[in-house]
Amino acid sequence: MCRDNNESILQLMGDMCTRGSRFCSVKTARKPPPLDAEEPINTASAIVDWGLDYVVLTSVDRDDLKDGGASHIASTVKEIKKRSSILVECLVPDFRGDEDCVATIVNCNLDVFAHNIETVERLTPFVRDMRARYRQSLAVLKAAKKFNPNLITKSSIMLGLGETNQEVEQTLQDLRDAGVDAVTLGQYMQPTKRHLKVVEYVTPQKFKAWENLGNQLGFLYTASGPLVRSSYKAGEYFLANILKQRKKQQIDSHTTS
Q1: CA nearest 83: which of 37, 50, 58, 35?
Q2: ∠ CA(36), CA(40), CA(46), 5° rounding?
Q3: Which helix or strand (DSSP H or E) is residue 59 part of?
Q4: Distance (Å, rounded) from C-alpha 153 to C-alpha 23?
Q5: What is the DSSP string of 69-119?
Q6: Is the Cβ–Cβ distance between 187 and 202 less than 8 Å?
Q7: pLDDT band for position 10 (50/70/90)?
Q8: What secondary structure does DSSP assign to 185-221, as a single string?
Q9: pTM of the predicted model as reported, rounded to 2 decimal places
Q10: Nearest to 168 by CA among 153, 186, 151
Q11: Positive or negative, the Cα torsion across 124, 128, 133, 136?
Q12: Contact call for residues 56 and 10 (beta carbons, < 8 A)
């Protein structure tokens, strides 16, 4: 868990993942411990006590569960919304591409649906777990928009793994075609010697060029820089303002109608 002023990032469903991506340092296990049934209520209570404005709920992959943990994540969001008006972003797994699981998340009253594409299509089999497929991730993001066209969707790309400029451009275009609203691009950093090595340290100038391209493609928000991560404070602040403006417009329209 990470807290920073009025924003926080919390990981649900334990600290053991059923997948073993070569960029990620989270512990792995074929069958992690059972979920804590009290976690949704306890998490919601803690978040409300902290007085946050915006929270990011992320999680490990739980392929051992029938729904990948979708109902557990959704329950946590519902418990938070019962107690407060905090804005909630969910950074979720791909749920093996199961659209019913995506619908469970979309319909839980969250504010931002996030799922990371992580890298370009060519490098996906070498960077991510073999069950995490590039087209499957795009389908998950597209499904979220299908279930709720007004929901803000978000994804993230790591750079410095050996991708070409053309491949990054194509990935950004693929995300836009999937209806993704916000995208972040950051530098991959090797967490331990056992993980993938950094192929290239991308220059600030190149990151700026990707930000400009993202804006040209029509993303609602593009954050691009060496230290940018999928949960990026400036981006969350920007999205929070958009969400608050939208809610104010809805209230005003109801008042005048």
Answers
A1: 50
A2: 110
A3: strand 54-59
A4: 23
A5: THHHHHHHHHHHHHH---EEEEE---GGG-HHHHHHHHTTT-SEEE---BS
A6: yes
A7: very high
A8: EEE----STTSPPP-----HHHHHHHHHHHHHHT-SE
A9: 0.90
A10: 186
A11: negative
A12: yes
Query: What angle (nearest 5°) sits at the alpha carbon of residue 32, between those of residues 26 and 33?
Result: 125
CA–CA separation, 123 vs 118, rounded Å? 10
The token pair that represents 12 in the structure block: 């649900």
CA distances from 169 to 113, 120, 126, 183 (A): 22, 9, 20, 13
CA distance 214 to 211: 5
Residue 240: CA atoms inside 13 Å, Cβ hemisphere, count?
18
Look at residues 201, 71, 92 and name the one whose alpha carbon lies nearest to residue 155. Answer: 92
The mean-pLDDT minimum among 25-34, 185-194, 206-215, 235-244 falls in 235-244
- pLDDT (tens digit per residue) in 82-125: 999 999 999 999 999 999 999 999 999 999 999 999 999 999 99
pLDDT of residue 3: 47
- Measure the CA–CA gap between 243 and 180, rounded to whole angstroms: 16
Please state, in angstroms and rounded to a whole number, the distance separating the CA atoms of residues 10 and 96: 22
User: Over the range 184-199, which residues count as b (16 or more CB within 10 Å of their CB) and which as e?
Assistant: bbbbbeeeeeeebeee
Per the listing, tokens 């499957």 go with 136
